[in-house]
């Protein structure tokens, strides 16, 4: 469910109040065998201007990189399901390396802290939705076409069964 937020264009606009500077990017989604990515330029609901490429690989890896008010932010996050009904996210967040001066190091730390808080706040906005959302056949709309294609991809996605040799 957590990975399904990224292809859900309506969720991005409503829950995160992201004001796209273009139409929903359904036509700009780049699909491959393992997932997708697309670019958005927008005003983020938490304030900054963003120019990001975001995507999902498989069912449990989120990638994001691009500009926040003109400075670069990169995110790599993995999700796990430690038990039924629960999930955990592990994130690596990066900003561009500075020149090493104390002033620049302080600025880079300030940008990193801002990026961490932006992503934490975004994840918190998702919490009420993730606790209640349930996808059902024939309930998606035309505005959900990227989400629908991702759900189709997940149905056909290879699954591991490492204990298969030990089950009789």
Kindly describe this structure.
The chain has a single domain (3-147), classed as Naphthalene 1,2-dioxygenase Alpha Subunit, Chain A, domain 1. The chain is 28% helix and 29% strand. The protein has three helices and seven strands. The protein has helices at residues 9-14, 102-130, 145-156, and strands at residues 19-20, 30-32, 35-43, 49-57, 61-68, 71-80, 88-95.
The appropriate CATH architecture is Alpha-Beta Complex
CATH class: Alpha Beta
Low-pLDDT stretches: none
Helix content: 25-40%
CATH fold call: Naphthalene 1,2-dioxygenase Alpha Subunit, Chain A, domain 1
Total separate domains: 1
Total count of helical runs of at least 4 residues: 3
Question: Topology, please?
Answer:
Blueprint: H1 9-14, E1 19-20, E2 30-32, E3 35-43, E4 49-57, E5 61-68, E6 71-80, E7 88-95, H2 102-130, H3 145-156
Antiparallel strand pairs: 1-3, 2-3, 3-4, 4-5, 5-6, 6-7
Question: Concise description?
Answer:
The chain has 168 residues and is an alpha+beta fold. The protein has helices at residues 9-14, 102-130, 145-156, and strands spanning 19-20, 30-32, 35-43, 49-57, 61-68, 71-80, 88-95.
């Amino acid at each position: 469910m957590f990975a399904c937020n990224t292809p859900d264009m309506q969720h991005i606009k409503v829950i995160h109040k992201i004001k796209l500077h273009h139409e929903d990017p359904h036509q700009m989604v780049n699909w491959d065998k393992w997932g997708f990515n697309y670019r958005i330029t927008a005003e983020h609901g938490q304030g900054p201007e963003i120019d990001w490429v975001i995507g999902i690989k498989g069912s449990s890896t989120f990638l994001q990189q691009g500009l926040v008010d003109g400075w670069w932010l990169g995110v790599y996050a993995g999700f796990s399901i430690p038990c039924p009904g629960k999930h955990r996210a592990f994130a690596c967040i990066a900003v561009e390396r500075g020149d090493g001066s104390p002033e620049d190091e302080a600025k880079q730390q300030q940008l990193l802290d801002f990026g961490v808080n932006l992503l934490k706040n975004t994840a918190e906005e998702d919490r009420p939705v993730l606790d209640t959302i349930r996808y059902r056949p024939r309930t998606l709309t035309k505005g959900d076409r990227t989400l629908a294609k991702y759900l189709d991809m997940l149905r056909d996605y290879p699954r591991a069964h490492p204990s298969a040799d030990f089950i009789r």
